[in-house]
Predict the 3D structure of the following.
Amino acid sequence: MTELAVITPTWKPDGAFFAELHRSVLEFTSDDTVHHVIVPAAHKSAFSGYAGPRCRIWTHPELLPRRYWRMPGGTWLNAGHPWPPVRGWVMQQAAKIAAAGMIDADAILLADSDVVLVRPVEAANFRVDGELSLFRKPDAVHDGMDRHVRWHQVARDLLGLPAAPPPPLNDYVDALIFWDPVVVRAMQDRIAEITGKHWVDAFTQQLHISEFIVYGVYADELMKQRPPSSPLICHSSYDRRPMDEAGALAFGDGIGQDAVGMMISSHSNTPLEVRRTAERRCVEVARK
């Protein structure tokens, strides 16, 4: 068993972002760390060149029950439950959970494809008394965040917990976080026990769901001991406007001491060279 594995769901249009992330994974993780990449089956050939000792390419059909079929337009159908169709975003979440539960590693680092690592990553640095820390932002979900509030209630329904209290609620969503595979498997078992269905079926039958919220609520509400809180490990910009060179340098200067990665949203259409400027500045600051 290795100390760390990295999981990234992606697809062909994000190939340039993934290339930057994968290069940084090779640079900033140990030689036995494998980058597990989850892609639609039709996009596998676009990533096959990365396959090797430190990169495993997975497709959704390889991770999920064979009764699921992908239909034209990107939706999925379950032969046992043909309606409603499963949203592609929900199916991607299910594939991520499936991979995290089956990979033989002490810790999983979930990284969005527009993330880049900028510091060495060792899971041991994010354990407290042997327990892997959990990314949680206390009381960050307020009553104006309708989707997050709904995600909390869906998570509690799947896990057999009482109705969610009124906001504020904890947030567990970020572009770069750690998961414990042992907790993932226990979460899968709990969903199956409560719903009487395979956890994939129960999960994918939800129209609105967040894998991060389900994991966080399980860890906080059902583990014998609540995990310690993780520091913010990703220095992020969610601005949808393109970043320029000056903005990239300023962004890099603001990286926190605990951050091991950075993320500039792919929706910002920031040029690749500007993203690289931000990455170089983050690395420079991190090394000081």
